[in-house]
Amino acid sequence: MDKQRLKRVESLLRDELAALILKEVKDPRIDTLLSITEIKVARDLSVAKVYISYYADSKKCLQLVTVLNHAAPFFQQELAKRVRLRRMPHLVFLHDNSIERGFRITETLKRILPHDY
């Protein structure tokens, strides 16, 4: 699959999955502070890695990853109804720690650089 089509599929899956989690999921363990930061789909559409972050803390995010991976078959089934693909990728939810990593880098730079910058 070419890169442009793959990017469109990733974007479509991200939008539909976000709407599904926000509007359809009734599980109280899944909070609305959850954010889908990125989806990476394999070229053969076999797997879609869904990166999530949680606003409050990373421990809660790791718990959400477990809950979402358990519910992945439900999400795949619902996405298959909404998105017309020949093959619906297997969803794997992962914790995205890039926001926390960026915050740590910023704090480190503030400590080591002079205040003039």
Report on this model:
The protein has four helices and three strands. The termini are far apart. 51% of the residues lie in helices and 19% in strands. It is globular and about 55 Å long. The mean pLDDT is 86. The chain is α+β, with helices and mostly antiparallel strands and 117 residues long. A three-stranded mixed β-sheet has the order 1-2-3. A hairpin with a 5-residue loop joins strand 1 and strand 2 (47-54). It has helices at residues 3-23, 58-70, 72-82, 98-112, and strands at 34-41, 47-54, 90-95. The chain has one domain: GMP Synthetase, Chain A, domain 3, CATH 3.30.300.
Rough shape? globular
User: Portion of residues in helices?
Assistant: 40-55%
- Strand count: 3
Domains (count) = 1
Q: What is the CA-based Rg, rounded?
A: 17 Å
Sheet with the most strands, sense and barrel status = 3 strands, mixed
Major beta sheet, strand line-up: 1-2-3
- Specify the CATH homologous superfamily: K homology (KH) domain
Secondary-structure-derived class: alpha+beta
CATH topology: GMP Synthetase, Chain A, domain 3
Mean pLDDT: 86
Going by CATH, the architecture would be: 2-Layer Sandwich
CATH class category name: Alpha Beta
Beta-strand fraction estimate: 15-25%
- Helix and strand sequence: HEEHHEH
